[in-house]
Amino acid sequence: MQQDDPSYVPRRLRRERRHPVKVTILAVTMVVACVLGVGGAYALKLNKAFDSAQVVAKEDVLPTYSDQPYKDPGDQSMNILLLGADKSETGAALDLTANGTDQRSDSMMLVHIPEGHDHVYVMSIMRDTYVNIPGVGSDKINAALQYGGVPKLRMTIEKMLDVQIDHVAAIDFDGFRELTRAIGGVTVDNPKAFCAYKTTPDVCFEAGKIHIEGQRALKWVRERHAFLTSDYQRVKNQQQFLKAVVSKVLSAEVMSSPNKIADVLGSMMPSVTMDSGLADKQMLIGLALQMKDVRGKDIRNFTLPNAGTGQAGGASVVLNSPEWDLKVGNAMEQGTMEELYASIPEEFKGK
């Protein structure tokens, strides 16, 4: 990957890296405690939950590079690359700082929070989407992780959409077992009866509204072999599950109980790896306060529209649509995501 050097003068201005005032973790969590009107014991519990996440230096996982898409310094929107961690061929967990490995991502989503902070747009990208990987050539987008790790994947998506990605986070899907237990499970609308054949054959799900948590939730969200449309249906299920989880977390049942909030964070954060910019607690507190009115109905799930399936080098691929790449990128940059969402064909929208 091409990196900036001191003598290089970019053709476009680039946002300077911020250096927020450093404060102690305890002090920041005490601010949260004060905002929520609870005592120091809760602050310590919340601090422990935050501390359990894995944090990597932002410059290691999101390095700047020449000709990077420009983002106006005054633009207060946020783009987060969210990866569902899958074990590699060797069984190792996804490493955000690894460069050129056998890693892969079970799912990839680009989360866009507009300047108004009144909605959240979660766009899934099919992992078999056939795209141009900078410095490599055409291949499935998931292969970018093998060619250059998360930095190469991030560059590939930025070049596709012509937008800048601000942060990255990876979530080990195994962590959802404890999360769903902490919130008492979620209800999803299962499109068809199926059994998780590649895992445990006797884990089956009836069609219609079902309540899932723990290991059953993990089986439901990861299954793809039971569907004729394979990854397409799995992506839809993952989108629906994520929205159900967020809706439950933002419900009065959870948000009215400080200890419940800490328990939810404590069950999830050990399974999260994120860049140091996203892990900045002062920033997270501000973001949370700005988004305090967001609920499940304000979350828009969709898959990046594509041109269907095809063959490339003897492999089955998802054909990328440059036209939709341009539309999505422009909408993110111009603050017109709601209008874009309304124009997306129903087959690409989640529930």
From TrEMBL:
Domain Cell envelope-related transcriptional attenuator: 104-250
Keywords, in A-Z order: Membrane, Transmembrane, Transmembrane helix
Positions of transmembrane segments: 21-44
InterPro entries documented for this protein: LytR/CpsA/Psr_CW_biosynth, LytR_CpsA_psr
Pfam families, per database record: LytR_cpsA_psr
Top-level division of the source organism's lineage: Bacteria
Record-linked PANTHER family: POLYISOPRENYL-TEICHOIC ACID--PEPTIDOGLYCAN TEICHOIC ACID TRANSFERASE TAGU
Family per record: Belongs to the LytR/CpsA/Psr (LCP) family.
Record protein name field: LytR family transcriptional regulator
